[in-house]
Design brief:
By secondary structure, the chain is α+β, with helices and mostly antiparallel strands. It has helices at 9-32, 332-375; strands at residues 49-55, 59-61, 65-74, 79-88, 94-96, 98-99, 102-103, 105-106, 116-122, 125-131, 139-140, 146-155, 162-177, 180-184, 186-188, 192-197, 206-211, 226-231, 240-244, 250-254, 262-271, 278-287. Strands 2, 4, 9, 10, 11, 13, 14 and 16 form an eight-stranded mixed β-sheet that branches. Strands 1, 3, 5, 8, 12 and 15 form a six-stranded mixed β-sheet that branches.
């Protein structure tokens, strides 16, 4: 209990109590840490970094997707061990692509695999965090522009046409030093502005194809993309023209020159107003080779037998022809002579035979007479 007197001793007691309380507060602050808002950051001596946003498209059309990347550009080589910032976007125009209820993050190639990246989103504000958990694999900037984290967006169908902005707030970049992580002064480059334009046309069809020679097979249809065409052997080039179904589409044709024998390719590329929509039509031009040139072939029939101008004389032999492997080249006159000689010899043979028979009969008769005389 404090007693009050006329000398004012109670005031001295109050002063001592205040000093004790202040000492306790300071001790608690040292033990439990001083809130970040009350601390004075320690900056890396001589180092600084610009932070900014980059889009992969200069114009954003309704219905299209695009990417946004948080980047840094240091004035010297830095080994970034951690970073954080807030990225603001217009939710009435853009949808953030998410994965499992969180922003879908793409890790740029310059960020080590072990470097942790995370993000959360609320009311059009993406809070990004990056950290090297083991302090062994920082992001090496090497004094050049470095991408730290990338997000994907799509333009809403009801997005307002005009200029839109993306901007950064509260960036913090820290690098590793011999005395531990030290914050690097960060300068925010002006907001990233971009133009939102109407939806692009996606019609990449052709309305017709014309060839300088031959006939397309099959007949042209905008939905058919492959054709064939035959040209004569003397054709060395062919002029192919095409017409797009949309006046906003662009056509390019390659091939059709210096045709070789056989198959040659002609390619017709149609790019819609939307450059992501491309349709390819191809024509296989077949140049006939000399051997393959079509000709009118005669009807195959048996070759007619040529008859001599004079009919040959047919000889009918009176006797069976003698079998021989050799052809009978005997003249007609000689054949008649041999026949006459054969007839003469046949007659002589018959006469001689008859004479012999007669003589035998005569001798037999005389023998019978002698026998009879002897018996008498």
């Amino acid at each position: 209990m404090i007693e009050y007197n006329e000398d004012g001793n109670h005031k001295r007691h109050t002063s001592k109590l205040s000093k004790v309380l202040m000492t306790l507060i300071l001790l608690c602050a040292l033990i439990f840490g001083i809130p970040k808002a009350l601390t004075v950051p320690v900056y890396a001596e001589g180092s600084s970094v610009d932070v900014y946003l980059a889009l992969n498209k200069s114009v954003l059309n309704i219905g299209k997707t695009f990417t946004l990347t948080f980047k840094v550009r240091p004035n010297s080589s830095l080994a970034i061990t951690s970073f954080d910032a807030e990225i603001h976007y217009d939710t009435t125009r853009f949808d953030l692509v998410t994965a499992v209820s969180a922003p879908k993050i793409t890790k740029p190639s310059g960020v080590p695999v072990s470097f942790d990246l995370s993000a959360s989103v609320a009311n059009g504000v993406i809070t990004i965090l990056g950290n090297d958990p083991d302090q062994t694999a920082p992001i090496q900037t090497k004094g050049a522009e470095t991408s730290l984290i990338t997000f994907a967006f799509s333009v809403k169908d009801a997005a307002k046409i005009g200029t839109a902005s993306f901007f950064i707030s509260n960036p913090t970049i820290a690098q590793n030093t011999n005395s531990g992580p030290v914050e690097v002064p960060a300068t925010i480059i002006s907001p990233k502005t971009v133009s939102v334009e109407p939806r692009l046309e996606t019609n990449a069809y052709l309305s017709g194809i014309s060839a300088g020679a031959g006939t397309l097979n099959p007949a042209f249809s905008k939905d058919v993309t492959k054709y064939s065409l035959e040209v004569p052997v003397e054709t060395t080039s062919i002029d192919v023209t095409a017409k797009s179904a949309s006046t906003l589409a662009k056509i390019s044709i390659s091939g059709g020159k210096d045709l070789k024998y056989g198959e040659n390719k002609v390619t017709i590329s149609v790019k819609a107003q939307d450059p992501d929509v491309i349709k390819i039509y191809t024509i296989t031009v077949v140049r006939l080779s000399p051997e393959a040139t079509p000709t009118i072939e005669p009807t195959v029939t048996e070759e007619p037998t040529l008859e001599p101008t004079q009919e040959p004389i047919e000889i009918t032999p009176t006797t069976p022809p003698v079998s021989s492997s050799l052809p009978d080249n005997t003249p007609k006159g000689a054949t008649d002579n041999w026949k006459n000689i054969a007839l003469i010899f046949m007659g002589l043979f018959l006469i001689t035979l008859a004479a012999l028979i007669w003589m035998i009969i005569e001798r037999a008769g005389e023998h019978k007479k002698v026998v009879k005389i002897r018996r008498l």
